[in-house]
Write a structure and sequence with these properties.
By secondary structure, this protein is mainly α. The chain is built from 5 helices and no strands.
Length: about 160
Amino acid sequence: MAASPERLLAIYLEDHLAGASAGVELARRAARNNAGTELGAAFARLSAEIEEDRQTLRRILGLLGFRASRAKEALAVAGERVGRLKLNGRIREYSPLSRVLELEALSTGIAGKLALWRSLQAVALQSLAGVDLAQLADRAERQRSDVEELRLAAVRLAFPGR
């Protein structure tokens, strides 16, 4: 038996909530790793905004009568932590490559979040009339642009031209 459209929507939203949870963890870690720098401040702002988006997504789940999957969120956060174990050219410390990879991961997450907000706009659910999906999409666009600028700067530092 195929899942109902409502069940598919619940799964979709739960998956995005799990991704947002991993994104918050990643942005907070990046802020700590870059503390005291302009980049650290940018990561801190981004982590606060991703947290706001995560709370909005929790509210959306509630408005639609769905419950968040704690298991999916926990698995996503655990996956983010396992992802820290990648080789980055240095055994125990932060490297310029770490920064590039963090920004690329955040960029991917933001692109997914933008797709989420646009998808919810496209289906125009009546119960979400009080949620400003256009503003959320605009913020995701700005985040994507900001992160891309930071990513390119990090790339130039990690891989200086010859």
